[in-house]
């Protein structure tokens, strides 16, 4: 039988409005496939008997049989006469990237694609959970999002723009949104932006890929934080760049390592306001030294400011871009955390000389971002709703962080030491017991808990063992239940 959380995931998939047009058996098949891809149903795990699952979901047995037949045809499950259906043994899982058996086979077979294509493929890409579960990191709470307000603003936009919004849009982004973003980053992040220097994209990830390909050539070196955000490292690896890891300490990236480097390095990637994953804030003297280095070497600073809306103790430090009078900084922002990931709107504030080249480059990827969503978002920001939403969520997340930190010290103190962050949506925890990081992650996953290992985020994959616990998307009660589950799971493997 499925565990309660697995059954709930399948039900959530079935009920999701975005899947309403799919036949029922396809929805069930997709939901189970997702559980497999996410690692929630591991290799060799039995699937419920079709009769039992049909009963739990209130559908006919034929529907379940059709879903299982499709999963079988796609290689996700084995069907053994007399004993039932099982997840295929070869399903592979790597943290942060989920590979089906097929993908794993394809990877090993090196398909007939270009070297560049292979580098992209081998990077594993960046794929996030479709249905977040504790403690998936970086996920905001979306269940209380003011959908009615959003819908009203969207209707207003449609009424005013009519069929105009159905046509192609400006590749740089709609003017109202660029203006709203510039006002916001100037006011809240201390940036030096104007609407004509803002480029609206679909995500930070798109910005990272654009930077990697537009600013550097294959073989060029780029400094990256060590440990670093996996999405950045993969974008740079896929573009054929040589990533030069730079140590991070309590004051952020160790800039001295950059300024004393004798080889030519053309750019640096960093998360200065809230280092991913350690949570460190880059000290002011280091920010200034970095800008000085970039100006002297005509290098680029790629500043990923992904979650500074959520700072719980005072205001976050102003961004590097605002301090940089030499125009060497590309500032990247996203609405994935501050609003919701399905929006797919991110942006960059560019030095003037990069606006045209980067706008042209993005047209080769996707033309432009969807005008309706941009115009609705602009209205949401202009009306003060964005600020209000962020303020509300900041209060909610601060409480959740508090709950998580308290529960971790109460129930998990035999295993980990929490590093309570000043901001963001996740809390790093360092392992203090004899368990390996891998064992802890696997034990957690077996009980439906998602934690992101820290050592794999280090360039050499050998950093101090620990994991990230996302807290923003889960209520105090959900956090409580999940911490208990995790504590039991770790205790069980410790004893084994
Ligand atoms: C450091 C960092 N940058 C960027 C992103 C991705 O944001 P987006 O959804 O806009 O690509 C994430 C998401 O987890 C992140 O942690």
Describe this structure in words.
- This protein has 496 residues and is α/β, with parallel strands linked by helices.
- It is built from 17 helices and 16 strands.
- The protein has helices at residues 4-15, 24-37, 50-57, 61-73, 101-109, 115-122, 147-161, 175-189, 204-215, 230-238, 255-259, 284-297, 352-365, 371-382, 385-411, 437-446, 476-495, and strands spanning 77-80, 84-87, 92-94, 97-99, 198-201, 221-226, 242-249, 252-253, 267-270, 300-304, 329-334, 346-349, 416-418, 426-431, 452-453, 466-470.
- The strands form 4 sheets. It has an 8-stranded mixed sheet with strand order 5-12-11-10-9-6-7-8, with helices on both faces. Strands 13-14-16-15 form a 4-stranded antiparallel sheet, with helices on one face. The chain has a two-stranded antiparallel ribbon with strand order 1-2.
- A hairpin with a 3-residue loop joins strand 1 (77-80) and strand 2.
- Mean pLDDT is 91; it is low at 91-102.
- Bound molecules: pyridoxal-5'-phosphate.
Brief characterization of the structure:
By secondary structure, the chain is an alpha/beta fold. It is built from 17 helices and 16 strands. The longest helix has 27 residues.
Q: What count of domains describes the coordinates?
A: 3
Query: Helical element count?
Result: 17
What would CATH call the class of the largest domain? Alpha Beta
CATH topology of the largest domain: Aspartate Aminotransferase, domain 2
Distance between the termini: 25 Å
Helix/strand/pairing class, anyone? alpha/beta
Largest sheet: 8 strands, mixed
Arithmetic mean pLDDT: 91
Q: State Rg.
A: 23 Å
Helix percent band: 40-55%
User: How does CATH name the architecture of the largest domain?
Assistant: 3-Layer(aba) Sandwich
Uncertain parts: 91-102
Shape: globular
Taken as a percent bin, the fraction of beta residues is 5-15%
Query: In order across it, which strands form the biggest sheet?
Result: 5-12-11-10-9-6-7-8
Bound molecules: pyridoxal-5'-phosphate
The total of beta strands comes to 16
CATH superfamily of the largest domain: Type I PLP-dependent aspartate aminotransferase-like (Major domain)
């Amino acid at each position: 039988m499925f565990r309660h959380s697995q059954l709930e995931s399948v039900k959530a998939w079935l009920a999701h409005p975005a899947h309403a047009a799919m036949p029922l058996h396809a929805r069930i098949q997709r939901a189970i496939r997702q559980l497999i891809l996410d690692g929630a149903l591991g290799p060799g795990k039995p699937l419920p008997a079709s009769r039992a699952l049909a009963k739990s979901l209130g559908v006919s047995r034929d529907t379940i049989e059709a879903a299982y037949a499709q999963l079988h045809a796609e290689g996700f499950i084995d069907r053994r006469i007399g004993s039932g259906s099982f997840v295929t043994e070869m399903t592979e899982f790597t943290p942060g990237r989920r590979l089906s058996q097929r993908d794993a086979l394809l990877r090993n077979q090196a398909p007939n694609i270009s070297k560049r294509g292979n580098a992209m493929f081998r990077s594993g890409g960046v794929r996030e959970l479709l249905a977040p579960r504790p403690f998936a990191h970086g996920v905001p709470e979306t269940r209380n999002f003011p959908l009615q307000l959003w819908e009203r603003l969207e209707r207003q936009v449609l009424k005013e723009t009519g069929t105009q919004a159905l046509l192609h849009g400006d590749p740089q982004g709609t003017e109202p949104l660029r203006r709203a973003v510039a006002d916001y980053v100037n006011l809240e992040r201390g940036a030096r932006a104007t609407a004509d220097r803002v480029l609206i994209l679909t995500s930070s990830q798109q910005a990272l890929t654009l930077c990697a390909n537009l600013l550097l050539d294959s073989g060029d070196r780029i400094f990256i934080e060590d440990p670093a955000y996996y999405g950045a490292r993969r974008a740079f690896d896929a573009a054929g760049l040589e990533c030069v890891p730079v140590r991070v300490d309590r004051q952020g990236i160790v800039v001295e390592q950059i300024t004393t480097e004798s080889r030519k390095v053309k750019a640096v990637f960093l998360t200065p306001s809230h280092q991913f994953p350690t949570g460190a804030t880059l000290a002011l003297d280091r920010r200034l030294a970095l800008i000085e280095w970039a100006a002297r070497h005509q290098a680029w600073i790629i500043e990923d400011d992904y979650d500074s809306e959520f700072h719980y103790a005072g205001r976050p430090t102003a961004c590097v871009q605002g301090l940089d009078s030499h125009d060497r900084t590309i500032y990247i922002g996203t609405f994935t955390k501050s609003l919701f990931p399905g929006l797919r709107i991110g942006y960059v504030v560019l030095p003037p000389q990069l606006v045209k080249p980067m706008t042209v480059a993005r047209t080769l990827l996707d033309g432009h971002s969807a005008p309706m969503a941009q115009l609705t978002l602009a209205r949401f920001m202009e009306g003060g709703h964005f600020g209000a939403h962020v303020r509300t969520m900041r209060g909610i997340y601060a409480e959740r962080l508090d709950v998580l930190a308290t529960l971790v010290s109460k129930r998990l103190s035999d295993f980990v030491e929490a590093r309570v962050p000043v901001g963001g949506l996740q809390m790093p925890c360092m392992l203090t017991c004899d368990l390996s990081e891998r064992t802890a992650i696997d034990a957690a996953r077996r009980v439906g808990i998602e934690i992101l290992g820290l050592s794999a985020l280090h360039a050499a994959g050998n950093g101090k063992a620990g994991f990230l616990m996302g807290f923003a998307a889960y209520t105090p009660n959900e956090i409580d239940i999940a911490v208990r589950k995790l504590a039991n799971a770790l205790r069980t493997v410790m004893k084994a």
